[in-house]
Amino acid sequence: MNGSLTQIRKRRKELIGELAGIEQMRRGSLCPQVFEAKRKDGTKVRRGPYVVYTRKEKGKTVSRRVTDPDQVQAYREQIEAFRRFEGLAAELVRIGERIGDLVLLDGEELKKKRSRRGKE
User: Are the CB atoms for 55 and 28 separated by under 8 Å?
Assistant: First the structure.
């Protein structure tokens, strides 16, 4: 990430605005579930696909079947919003590091200039 400190801080404000705009988000994923069942006569029949919402909770995988198509779409949008949140947060961290580097560099430059003035 290149640019002046002013430009980088402007992008930081934009990111914070985008993050603030994300209201609903959800970790996890939606997966199709298909399973085979046996009939009384012994023949197998395939059931599904069903949509299953899966996430990690306290180190364990938790799954729940989502049957309402409107809810499936809402889950998809919320999961996508979470992925967008993760990307924005990662960029915000990179920007914070870059700002820190620039501020430290400016501080070092000031120290060098002051020490040069003292030698003259």
Answer: yes
